[in-house]
Amino acid sequence: MAGKRLISTAYLPPIEYFSLFSQADEVFIEREENYQKQSYRNRCYILSAHGPQILSVPVYLGSLHKTPVKDIRIDYSKRWQQVHLRAMTASYNSSPYFEFYFENIEKIILKNFSFLLDLNMELTESVLEMLKLKIKISYTATFQPVGETENDFRYKITPKEESQYTVKKYFHVFDNNNKLVQGLSILDLIFNMGPESVNYL
Fold it and tell me: Which end of the chain, N or C, is less surrounded by CB atoms within 10 Å?
């Protein structure tokens, strides 16, 4: 089902997010919307030995004003980069493909982007390369209200609601009692399945 997709920006988001790329010829990433708190825009979930773990990028928010997502700046007063990279290493360093992909993710996270949108875009482009998906990506120029655009997934992939998307079962270092955890970052799939990852989207 090719065509265009409209999605939110996201920080190393779930497998479901990248399944939309695999179905599209072109993807538009929303940059004109007001920033949504407690969403995948600045957080992801990885699988640790103790279960799902949240990794959140701290951001500055306008005090009382709604802030466009394109203007959201990353807060480096908190040592989030070291926390995220240590957590990824602790969770996945024994995964089959960790050493093949982690270095590139690490370099991007350590780049000190000013804006969340830029960090997310470079990570997304890097993951698409790992998945060997060649998709045209553009930013939106204006905000289209919900319901006015076909294939609008901006607010459908959220940690606040249980997803209807079913992830195909794949190998995990932590088998979690043989139960597949939904909503995990694409990193979980890539570090565990490597070049085969695209077949699970």
Answer: N
